[in-house]
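Aim 2, interim progress: modelling of the adenosine-5'-triphosphate-bound target.
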Amino acid sequence: MSSGPVLRAMGLRKVYGDFVAVDRVDLEIGRGEIVGLLGPNGAGKTTTISMMVGLVPPTSGDLVVEGRSVRRDPVWVRSRVGLVPDSPGFYDGMTAWENLWITARLNGVRDESRIQDAISRVGLSGWEDVAVGKFSKGMKQRLGIADALLKSPSVLLLDEPTAGLDPGGSDEVLRLIRSLADGEGMAVLMSSHLLHQVEWVCDRVAVMDRGRVIAQGTLDQLVGRRYYVEMELDGDVNAAARALLPVGKVKVEDRRIVVEAGEDVRRKAVDTVLRAGAVPVEVRMRRAGLAEVYRNLLEAGS
Ligand SMILES: Nc1ncnc2c1ncn2[C@@H]1O[C@H](COP(=O)(O)OP(=O)(O)OP(=O)(O)O)[C@@H](O)[C@H]1O
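Predicted structure of the complex, ligand included:
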């Protein structure tokens, strides 16, 4: 295997008629790395994933997996990329094993022990002979991952893997994804609208808007140094808010003031509020999270 990134998208572009669905996406995923793909509805996430797995041909650009280009070795590249769609389609009347047997056949996997192996890797041992119709949504999602693992891919692409799952089911799926990256060195890309889950499980994040990747990096790189001081006040809240304007970006919510700044301004904010004649009854500070970064990025782009 080459020592560079496992997957590298270079200028991937998809145009439908005169509509640009995906516009020159550059993205790299390393061994054992999980990248979260975020963006509002219609941003181009599914189209990007579909191009990476060979379901949609790119209008231009290239995809390189383990050093080999999809333009030169399309069949080989496709064999190295596993896809887990948002709702994996299984035959409900057939067992988990039978469903995976069909996928194995379609992918030319003749060694049937790989079916059992995939089932146990996703924690479904003991369920192989149960009809998939009896599975919970979370179990079906894990079986979807087993299905993608059958061809022993080096890249796993998941389209909203926890959509519609309850917190317990989401947790199991996310832990499984993390263990595939940590334990087996799989390169993972997962699209999601659930920012707290992405924050929890992903090493890096790429944010798409209107077909383009508008930001990517680790959470620390994206968040940078942004701090929020939240104060609950007694007294003249509006006078305090006016006095705080030189300290940072100020937001007033009823009796609560939030000051956003590039450093910890707790002391300065409290002094300023007291001088303005108000009394802070509660003061809290937190660093910005993915939710704020995401909102700011999309607001800046609109
Ligand atoms: N086959 C197609 N023909 C024309 N337009 C398409 C086609 N497939 C997707 N699009 C358009 O491309 C844009 C990107 O769609 P895509 O499904 O990739 O977005 P998404 O980020 O996955 O959205 P969501 O979060 O809703 O799943 C949308 O405006 C969609 O309508």
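The chain has two domains: 7-217, 224-301. The chain is about 35% helix and 30% strand.
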